[in-house]
Prior knowledge:
Elements: H1 2-51, H2 60-66, E1 70-82, H3 95-104, E2 109-122, E3 128-132, H4 133-136, E4 141-145, E5 151-153, E6 155-160, E7 165-169, E8 192-197, E9 205-216, E10 226-229, E11 241-243, E12 249-256, E13 264-268, H5 269-282, E14 288-289, E15 292-295, H6 299-304, E16 313-318, H7 323-327, E17 334-338, E18 341-342, H8 346-354, E19 361-368, E20 371-378, E21 380-381, H9 384-398, E22 400-404, H10 407-413, E23 421-426, H11 431-435, E24 442-446, E25 449-450, H12 454-462, E26 469-476, E27 479-486
Antiparallel strand pairs: 1-2, 1-4, 2-3, 3-7, 4-5, 6-7, 8-9, 8-11, 9-10, 10-13, 11-12, 12-13, 14-21, 15-16, 16-17, 17-18, 17-19, 19-20, 22-23, 23-24, 24-25, 24-26, 26-27
Helix pairs in contact: 9-12
Amino acid sequence: MKRLSTLLVLILSVFVITMTGCEKLEEGTTPQKKIDTEKTTEKKEDIVETSRVHELPSFADLVEKLKPSVVNISTTSTFSQGGPFPRPPFGEENPFEDFFKRFFGDIPQQEFKQSGLGSGFIISEDGYVVTNNHVVDKAQEIEVILEDGKKYKAQVIGKDAKTDLVVLKIDPEKKLQAVVFGDSDKLRIGDWVVAIGNPFGLGYTVTAGIVSAKGRSLGLSSYDDFIQTDASLNPGNSGGPLFNQMGDVIGVNTAIVAGGQGIGFAIPINMAKYVIEQLKDKGKVVRGWLGVLVQPITPAIAESMKLKEPKGALVSDVTPNSPAAEAGIKRGDVIVDFNGKKIDDVNDLTTLAAATPPGTEVKLKVISDGNEKDINVKLREFPDETAEATEKEVKEKLGLTVHEITPQIAARFRVEVEKGVVITHVDQGSVAQESGLQPGDVILEIVGQAVNNIDDYKSAVDKIEKGKSALFLIKRGKNTIYIGIRTE
């Protein structure tokens, strides 16, 4: 009995020790498990929070609001051509025409109609519309189609080929919804943008993307300063608006890259506004003129000139009697600031000068001979604006297109003289071509009268009697020659 009691006590002791150990183990492990669980939960929450994909923006409400301000544009051009074959693209000659002429002689001219499509946007409630110049160039009929389907005949109020912009006017039955201009200078690379237009004539189409780059130059003109976007742009989008997320127009869709995908270009609205306002009010654009030929600053040039960075516009030449020349700007100067705006490259200076009204006095910050100084310059009207009309007046008489000698023209035709007018084009079959005149020739005299500028040239040509010969003194390369021209 005593042995049995001892055995029971021993078994009970083992049981108590075992239970106590288990309890201690649970007490020891339970907090650890809780800690691990808490840590795990905390990590999972962190992972969910940091990897959460935010919803992409919906432009549906914005587009619904903006569509009435966007228009589709349809154009019709008429051209004449001999023979039954339509004109090949890009003005190429049709190989079948020569074949027909050999056997059937001259082929009667036939008229063909060619249609074009584009986009545009309304800038005033009374019917002023903006689009690209190339959309309506040479069109005999222009039709603007509103979002509600109504169609109106449009007339050209003014166009500017240099920036590829045109202002049209329609007479709507009611007030229209105009766009709001934004500030393209505030655009940042990566900002969302929306394009609305008429690609391939499909009607109102919306595409979205981001700003891929700013300040792009495509070599299309002296005023290249494009916004690059990956919003899909196709033929027919030209002239349409590029909106920001606020619904403001920040660009005019203009160019696409052939064969490129996701690459489109728009004219910044800050540059377009100046042109649009002048076209709307005056029918033409009057640009400010500084009178310098400038070039980019490469790292090598910056190093050799001991510049801090390769930024600014290097003056390679100055037009005589120009605003820049009168203000004391000289070859080798570096223009780094224009009226408080930094000049990073050549396009900055060209754009700012052109967008400044003639007669405005501007302050330039110039690095000259290693020293920085301020120079005040009073801009004048760009001479091209007046020269173009003069060229048209005298072109028909001789078949010549001439231009006053500027640094840009001199560099293009390798002209080494500062006075005279340079021939930039000679018409095929004209009396000028038959006499032997060539592009790049500089006209120094006509019938003994000195030709120093466009006005001298026009005055001398007007004095040439019809059917009589006139003696031209020409500078060709390093040689000076006389050429006789007999007018018809």
